[in-house]
Design a protein that fits this description.
Elements (H helix, E strand, L loop, with lengths): L4 H31 L5 H33 L12 E3 L28 E2 L1 E4 L4 E4 L2 E6 L3 E6 L13 H13 L8 E8 L2 E6 L6 H6 L2 E2 L3 H13 L3 H13 L11 E6 L3 E6 L13 E5 L4 H9 L14 H7 L3 E7 L3 E6 L9 H9 L3 H9 L4 E3 L11 H4 L2 H4 L9 H10 L3 E3 L2 E3 L7 E5 L5 H17 L2 E5 L3 H8 L7 E6 L7 H7 L20 E4 L3 E4 H9 L4 H18 L2 E3 L1 E10 L3 E2 L15 H10 L4 E2 L4
Parallel strand pairs: 1-12, 18-19, 18-20
Antiparallel strand pairs: 2-9, 3-4, 5-6, 6-8, 7-8, 10-11, 11-12, 13-24, 14-20, 14-23, 15-24, 16-17, 21-22, 25-26
Helix pairs in contact: 1-2, 3-5, 5-6, 9-13, 10-14, 17-18
Length: 628
């Protein structure tokens, strides 16, 4: 138990006074002794005994004072144990047969950074690229030439070459990767050079290329990549996608510093890959992932000291944790993303814009963020546009902002819109124009407590208004792999912001156009029509707007396009951004040292905390604490 500094100071002062008083008594006794020169030997003996006892008392109190002072003013963490063989961080994947080792298949076990590597990392703050599989690159308006490391191996011992990069991008073409909107072709003039030829310039094209995970070696996936290169019809590509998705490798095969050692229902264990291209820098022999699907369990394990990195702490316990466990550190970064309420535009009633707007007026974003703050701090979206609060004024002029709807909480507007759409209210419940009880299903990812808190608030608000809501929390892997990208929802919680200050990816994530035969995406499939018509901007093609923003480099023209897309989000309302998440990245320094709070690697965590861990290890910023 620790004491507050002000109370500690009072105790120290009180004990100091006691010691001084005792010292005064001793001096008085000594003085009396000196004055009694004629005292008998017996009296001198008694006085001598008194002095000894007082001296002992003084020494005891002095030791007590010293000990109390140390306890009160400097609470020390426990002595660190022997350096652990494995660093522990929670995992969330499902082991086979529910999960699989194919990075293209649903429910795959994708361990970023540690197993699968990028060509390079984009460090969003302060803003630079860190080479990984690529040693260097050259960027021109017509091509991006990437020069690869020459001492890289796949975990099965196969040498890594340019054909592996080519294979990954070719299969990505079959799966509709965004980068292929701008690429003409990919060539491999030698084993260590990859040239990406650009047919249409794009602001983010170099970043799309360089930050790609290269996870599909030619010796495993090359036969499909060769077929993609020759395919001429969408039917051929669809067939290839089916075959690739059905493939089931026997194990994880990446190029990262760790390879799969074992997997059970309880945990995944990675071990150091001895042929890694920077193996001499990898000082932690194992990474363990206890498979945890609920944050409460995660916190219980962390509190017991069994998790080293990235664990959840209940907001209500933050101060207590800081006092009781000073070896736990919390580093905050903006997540540059957060939860949004997505609508299925193919739903019989949600396809009516008036109904979506009515629901938007029933969601108090500030109250929703307060609900989430019990778990993690969130800041309400200033205006629902898809643009992060930090850069809203950079993209939206004051004049255009006046044309946007802030969707402030307003049940009266909601009621008017529903009545206009033909809904009626009886006995406190809303009924559809067909006379049936108005009922919707809302889903949120199970175990994501902050998102669940937001969803629970939304469901409660709609119910209080008279709209029946069936609220469900599917298992997280099923949620992101099948339900959300498959459009299997009435309303769902999904990402907005998407970890970029440049709002293109946020718009892409909310404006998923419904096209027959379109490949699956990681975004909520809301069924957005490609062409819409709205006041202020008239008839627009959403796909063309997105492509125009991607291919425009002049800031003034970018602002014009961003405002149009923000208007589409705000007025057509396929999704309602709720708030931005402020992410706490946690570690406890019992077994390992972690980088200081201001180190750039923490800014890699939003969207890829395992990739951040890999860079921390690679740069010697996460190291075992040696035995004392």
């Amino acid at each position: 138990m620790s004491l507050r500094p002000e109370k500690a100071s009072l105790i120290v002062i009180a004990l100091s006074v006691i010691v001084l008083l005792l010292a005064g008594v001793i001096l008085a006794q000594i003085s009396a002794l000196a004055g009694q020169i004629s005292a008998t030997r017996e009296e001198i003996g008694r006085l001598s005994d008194t002095v000894s006892k007082l001296a002992e008392t003084t020494e005891t109190v002095s030791r007590l004072l010293e000990n109390l002072t140390g306890v009160i003013t400097k609470p020390s963490p426990p002595k660190p144990p022997v350096a652990a063989a494995a660093l522990v961080t929670p995992g969330w994947w499902k082991p086979p047969p529910a999960g699989n080792y194919n990075p293209w298949a649903p429910m795959n076990i994708f361990i970023s950074g540690l197993v699968y590597e990028r060509l390079a990392y984009w460090i969003r703050k302060p803003g630079f690229y860190k080479p990984i599989l690529a040693e260097k690159w050259e960027i021109t308006p017509t091509k991006v030439s990437v020069y690869l490391r020459k001492n890289v191996y796949w975990h099965d011992g196969t040498h890594f070459t340019s054909k592996d990069v080519w294979t990954t991008f070719m299969i990505g073409k079959a799966f509709g990767w965004t980068v292929w909107l701008y690429l003409d072709r990919v060539e491999t003039p030698d084993d260590y050079t990859v040239v990406f030829y650009i047919k249409k310039p794009g602001v983010l094209v170099p970043r799309y290329i360089l930050t790609t995970f290269i996870h599909s070696p030619y010796h495993m996936y090359g036969k499909w990549a060769e077929r993609v290169a020759k395919a001429e019809t969408s039917e051929e590509l669809s067939k290839i996608r089916e075959e690739v998705t059905a493939y089931r490798p026997d194990t994880l095969v990446g190029t990262g510093p760790y390879k799969l050692k074992s997997i059970t229902e309880a945990e995944i264990v990675l071990e150091k890959f001895e042929k890694y291209w920077a193996a001499e820098k990898i000082v932690i022999p194992e990474i363990k992932f206890p498979l945890i699907y609920a944050r409460e369990v995660e916190w219980a394990e962390a509190y017991a000291g069994r998790i080293d990195y990235r664990f959840w702490i209940p907001t209500a316990l933050l101060e207590t944790v800081r006092e009781e466990k000073p070896w736990i550190r919390i580093v905050y970064t903006s997540d540059l993303a957060g939860p949004a309420l997505f609508f299925n535009l193919k739903h019989k009633w949600l396809k009516d814009l008036r109904v979506r707007k009515a629901i938007a007026y029933l969601v108090d974003r500030e109250a929703a963020c307060k609900a989430a703050a019990v778990i993690l701090p969130h800041s309400p979206a200033a205006i629902p546009t898809g643009i992060l609060n930090e850069v809203l004024d950079e993209w939206i002029t004051p004049e255009f902002k006046a044309k946007l709807d802030p969707y402030n909480y307003d049940p009266k507007k909601a009621e008017a819109l529903l009545k206009e759409a033909g809904f009626t209210k009886k006995g406190g419940k809303w009924y559809t124009p067909d006379g049936e009880l108005f009922r919707l299903t809302l889903i949120a990812p199970g175990g994501w407590d902050d998102w669940m808190a937001v969803a629970e608030y939304i469901a409660s608000s709609l119910r209080d208004f008279g709209i029946e809501v069936d609220y469900k929390t599917p298992e997280v892997s099923l949620y992101w792999a099948k339900l959300v990208p498959g459009g299997e929802f009435d309303m769902c919680m999904g990402w907005w912001g998407r970890w970029y200050f440049f709002p293109l990816e946020s718009f892409r994530g909310m404006l998923v156009v419904e096209k027959p035969g379109a490949p699956p995406t990681a975004y909520p499939r809301v069924g957005m029509p490609e062409v819409i018509e709205l006041p202020e901007i008239g008839r627009v093609n959403v796909t063309e707007l997105l492509i125009a923003l991607e291919t425009t480099f002049e800031k003034e023209k970018q602002i014009e396009l961003v405002q149009k897309l923000a208007y589409v989000v705000n007025q057509y309302l396929p999704a309602l951004p709720i708030g931005e998440k402020l992410s706490p990245w946690t570690c406890q320094e019992l077994r390992f040292r972690f980088p200081p709070d201001d180190d750039y690697t923490w800014w890699l965590c939003p969207g890829d905390h395992l990739g951040a861990l890999k860079i921390m290890i690679l740069e010697g910023k996460v190291v075992p604490i040696p035995k004392e």
